[in-house]
Amino acid sequence: MKKHNFNAGPAILPDYTIEKSIEAIKDLNGSGLSLLTISHRSKDFDAIMDGAVAATKRLLDIPEGYSVIFLGGGASTQFYTIPYNFLGTKAAYLDTGTWALGGIKEAKLYGEVEVVASSKDKNYSYIPKGYKIPTDVDYFEICCNNTIEGTEIREDWDVSVPFIADMSSDIFSRPVDVSKYSLIFAGAQKNFAPAGVTMVIIKDAFLEKVVRPVPTMADYRVHVSKNSMFNTPPVFPIFAALKTMEWIEMSGGVKEMEKRAIDRSEKVYAELERNKFFVPTVEDPADRSRMNITFLLKPEYAELETAFLDLAKARGLVGIKGHRSVGGFRASCYNALPMESVDALVATLQEFEKSN
Ligand code: PLP
Questions:
Q1: Can you give the pTM of this predicted structure?
Q2: Residues in the ligand 1 pocket, defined by CB under 6 Å
Q3: What CATH number does the domain located at 16-250 have?
Q4: Whose CA is nearest to atom 9 of ligand 1?
Q5: E-assigned strand segments in the chain
Q6: Which residues of the chain have pLDDT under 50?
Q7: From atom 15 of ligand 1, which residue's Cα is the shortest distance away?
Q8: Which residue of 114, 249, 252, 276 pairs with 256 in a disulfide if CB–CB is 3.0 to 4.6 A?
Q9: ipTM of the complex
């Protein structure tokens, strides 16, 4: 049976990425060696690293004065690396859920944290509005796409202090005005590679604002100056990231990814609005994530949860169960998800309505 992969992460990747990765694991560019066994100091790997940096810069139209690095450790590593480097006295954070809190918790180890607003009162089902960002902070950090709660910030705000964003689950799903940010980070395992690498885009001038002595491996300046090669980088995910970026470029770039994300998510949300059994967890369409669509059975049908999960499984829908903190269901619709899978989800929602 055809599987439709709605996993939240690790998640679906383009067939192109998988095929090119398998080829390279067997034999990298006809070298007779596997990608997994070559030196990261070799010319072959240099080309992969340089290619991945260049492709990121092209795809996101990154202006001069920014560096792109690929680091091990996952997006969670950035939660402490950022305050370690940049939190001297006080930082501001927007509390939009689990992953925003991940950053807030670590920042508190290094200085004062001002949470400018929170949507905790409604289980993080909206993006807070109408707050002031203090001007006496070292930086302001947000999580753009809240993978678990299904909300998303899609505008690149004008912020008067250094602006930092976790784009782990929506990177490459829209054009980004990188010039608005001092630092962007994104764990790979949602929209561009297997787990094991995190991409960081950092404004070079921001590197001059490091506030304390930092251990070498946590020092952004080291990784930038060594082109992500201070230590052994996660070679395989970086190769796969390069292949995904090639696929995005061949498909029409991030504008096209945005169009596809709109088409996919509009179709699913429209069905959730229409279907008498289900309701999206995020009320305001402007706050709804295009990447992670969270939905519930209406309270009067809540006991049918297992029945829907069973039907989804029977129809080949994988990874549709919601995170335990939100409950219900979550359909993650990353860049590589074909419309065919969205159609399968919509058909299953309709079949469920008819048969109950
Ligand atoms: N930030 C966001 C938005 C995420 O969705 C996740 C993981 O799902 C993380 C950070 C943490 O990523 P990692 O598991 O790579 O540390």
A1: 0.98
A2: 9, 74-76, 99, 143, 147, 166, 168-169, 187
A3: 3.40.640.10
A4: 75
A5: 4-5, 66-71, 90-95, 112-118, 140-143, 145-146, 151-152, 163-166, 183-187, 198-203, 278-280, 292-297, 317-318, 329-332
A6: none
A7: 74
A8: 252
A9: 0.99
